[in-house]
Design goal:
CATH topology: Rossmann fold
Strand order of the largest sheet: 7-6-5-8-9-13-10
CATH superfamily: Vaccinia Virus protein VP39
Helix content: 25-40%
Oligomer: single chain
Order of helices and strands: EEEHEHEHEHEHEHEHEEEEH
CATH class: Alpha Beta
């Protein structure tokens, strides 16, 4: 299996060992949560750029929430979409790449593709759903991974007033840029935000040769309720100390790698 679109995760016990020929996967260990294909009723999974623990968390949430309407910001290969479509009545897939709709067209009858930058497509979609009184129950934020992009997507989400509990999951919360965007978002300005946990699922220091030392992965979780909060609120990050230590080590590892490459060219 490679990382190109169309790759199928057919072996639920696939392990990426340190000597795997794929430099983007080598050393990452178990590729998928073994129970997920069975839960989804599929013999194999489309390539899913989430760790087994992230996959398990996504399935747990969606299997129990069964949202009437869900939104995915950033679809790419459709890994998360296969789960969203399985447990949601209606899904809006937002992506900047028009090839996403062409690649996945016809595979999920309950999915509507919305192509364009999320800062342009998300606000009118949320406004329409708000006007229609739709029970929006789940949003996955996994598009623009810049700090500003993450912050903008979240702030747009926070314009929505939920009629039903709304779960917002944000991928790559361990990435420094994404993490900054998560903390900078204006959570407290929306009185319906009940909880925000940056490290709902903790990310990792990537061991693969292509991304060695970089911080990626992790799921942040926010829950918005119809009734305004009447209790203390603050953004929590249960793995902040782990992140800070990992970030320092990651920076040193990357600097050493760059130095070795520079010396090798001399």
């Amino acid at each position: 299996m490679d990382s190109e679109f169309g790759s199928i995760m057919g072996d639920p016990y696939k392990v990426y060992f340190a000597d795997d020929p794929d430099p983007g996967k080598a050393g990452q260990g178990l590729a998928t949560c073994p129970l997920v294909p069975e839960i989804l009723g599929r013999e194999a999974l489309d390539y899913w750029q989430m760790s087994p623990s992230e996959q398990a968390a996504m399935v747990l949430l969606l299997q129990n929430l069964k949202p009437s309407v869900a939104i995915e910001i950033g679809t790419k290969f459709g890994g998360s979409l296969q789960v969203l479509a399985r447990f949601s009545e209606k899904v809006y897939s937002l992506d900047i790449d028009p090839e996403v709709e062409r690649r996945l067209a016809g595979r999920y009858p309950n999915v509507e593709f919305v192509i364009g930058p999320s800062n342009e497509t998300l606000p009118p979609l949320l406004k329409r759903l708000q006007t229609e009184g739709v029970n929006l129950g789940f949003i996955l934020v996994d598009g623009d991974h810049t700090s500003k992009g993450v912050e903008t997507d979240i702030n747009n989400v926070l314009q929505f007033k939920p009629r039903h509990p709304l779960y917002v999951v944000m991928h790559d919360s361990f990435s420094p840029d994404c993490r900054r965007g998560l903390f900078r978002a204006q959570w407290e300005r929306n009185p319906h935000v009940r909880v925000v946990e940056i490290d709902f699922v903790t990310g990792t220091v990537n061991p693969s040769p292509e991304f060695r030392g970089q911080l990626w992965g992790g799921l942040a979780l926010a829950i918005l309720l119809p009734e305004p909060r009447a209790t203390r609120f603050e953004v929590s990050a249960r793995a902040q100390m782990t992140y800070e230590r990992s970030d320092r080590r990651s920076t040193l590892t990357i600097l050493k790698s760059l130095l070795r490459r520079a010396l090798g060219r001399v």
